[in-house]
Amino acid sequence: MFVAGKNVAEDKNKRNTMPIDVLTERTYPISDLVRKLPTRRSKSTLKNWCIRGVKASHHSDERIKMEYVVVGGVLHSSVEAYKRWTERLTHEWKKYH
User: Is 25 exposed, middle or buried (0-12, 13-18, 19+ CB in 10 A)?
Assistant: First the structure.
């Protein structure tokens, strides 16, 4: 499976990388998505969440990445992807706390 420039089967963190279904989810450029989320963040923060991910806990080196797709060289994501990402972060955080 090919997602956002990565072969998911070869991704060492493949359980962190879930494809966005562009046929059923409304995707937005990162610059627009920042206004649709319940907490205000900068577009560079959202880009980092997608590209670098976030450590769920200081007890783990695993980074949880927010799902994204690239359309015309621009990162896009969805409110649903943000929801799934926060659920994964919460699940991982609870393992250590």
Answer: middle
